[in-house]
Amino acid sequence: MMNRYDRWGFVVLLSIVSAVLASACQRLDPGLTGGGRLRSEVGVGGSPGDDGTGGSDGVDCPSLRTQAFDVLQTNCAICHQAPGTPALYLGPFNFILDLDVLTSSNSPSSLPSAPLKYVVNGSPADSYIYRRIVNDSMPPVTRLQRPTPADIDVLNQWITSCIDDPTSPEGWSGSGSTPDGGVDAGPVLESCNAASVCPDNGCCVLGFCRPNGTTCGTVPNPIPGQAPLSGLSGMCMRGSCQKADGGGSCGSVGEPCCDNLLCTATQSSCLTTDMTMCSACGGHGQPCCKPTICLDGHACVNDRVGFVGTCMMCGNLGQPCCGSGSPAQQRCNDAALTCVADSIQETRCTNGADGGTDR
């Protein structure tokens, strides 16, 4: 058993060891947590930027800009960089990889009296895209691909220190962009319109039009870093996907439905009344394409459980209202007409003189 002098000596020794360990921890590079790869040490006797990295506090701006570009490309460009994916987003913010525009444009969501730029040099807290990412409102909650805490740290340091650093006059460095400022990408595909309409005998495959004579199968995503676009087996030939070696075709009117009960030709659908053959749909007097889709200027009427609705002209006096939802959410072609409930499930455009009432 230690006497009181031994115990005192042990306490003193423990205090000395603790002080040494604390001093060593304080000298650790703070970048070792939450993105330590972003920082480089300044040489003895140097100052920030002397080693060619630029920025402040020894931030390695060329590396940081590359990482920031990758974060925006992976998590945001699918909707916010032209051509993007029109089925997901068709708005004006389509330049998230264009640094000059990004740092000079105001978000339309900000007030004229308090304009808010998408990116404010040196101030993440005042940068619109950073705010949206930090509060988790972007990307949308339905998107599984989201920035990690390390990604957010990258954007924070990039905005704080490296937006206009002289080591990269064009803003990005080593980012994978092409010499003319574009971005390497897969084929640009337009989304299928209402009733699966694709131009020039193309095939509507999982929401995107495949040009006639090209594959119905998996293709690279037009947004680099995103997963390939899934497809169906075969080649697109005049609206149907034809399999190699005489394996048959599917997807066009009168042909079997493709995998997952899909049809690929314009205005064709694997209707719930059959679910084996593709039927014409979407036009006037034709069945509604799944689920209740018709060409513009038509409404799907008499659609209910166990039945397929019919596409009818809409929006004029006495015709069904166009659109979906409650009568207040549907529309008529003439501002003088009012959309009223004509039955439990249907609506009608009326001018009030024909006896139309809300009921």
Structure description:
With 359 residues, this protein is an alpha+beta fold. The chain has 3 domains: 61-161, no CATH class; 185-295, no CATH class; 314-359, no CATH class. Helix 2 packs across helix 6 (149-161). Helix content is 18%, strand content 9%. It has a 3-stranded antiparallel beta sheet with strand order 3-4-5, with no helix packed on it. The chain is built from 6 helices and 11 strands.
Please state the overall shape, judged from the principal axes of the Cα atoms. flat
Question: How much strand?
Answer: 5-15%
Portion of residues in helices?
A: 10-25%
Distance between the termini: 94 Å
As for the number of domains, it is: 3
List the helices and strands in order: HHHHHHEEEEEEEEEEE
The chain-level structural class is alpha+beta
Mean pLDDT: 75
Counted by DSSP, the helix tally is 6
Arrangement of strands in the largest sheet? 3-4-5
- Quantity of strands, as a count: 11
Low-confidence stretches: 4-53, 173-184
Largest sheet: 3 strands, antiparallel
Radius of gyration: 30 Å
